[in-house]
Design a protein that fits this description.
The chain is mainly alpha-helical and 76 residues long. It is rod-shaped, with a radius of gyration of 31 Å.
Length: 76
């Protein structure tokens, strides 16, 4: 009976080591995903800001062109 118990204990130890290893990997991956999510939020905000600035610039250029009398070609 001693061998069955020691085999079971070894199996339990192996399972616990595996669980700990998996938990550590999951924590690492969660950290990486959090970093990527933050990066994506920054990129999204930069794109929104860039689009807003381009639209503002286009309106300003359009107003200047009207004032100067330049006709713009139709854009699709």
């Amino acid at each position: 009976m001693v061998t069955k118990t020691s085999k079971m204990e070894k199996n339990v130890e192996t399972i616990l080591e595996t669980v700990i290893f998996i938990k550590e990997k999951v924590e690492t991956m969660e950290g990486t995903l959090d970093d990527h999510s933050r990066d994506l939020k920054v990129i999204k905000k930069d794109v929104e800001t860039g689009l807003d600035k381009r639209l503002q610039l286009e309106v300003r250029v359009g107003n200047i062109e009207k004032h100067v009398g330049i006709k713009r070609p139709a854009t699709v």
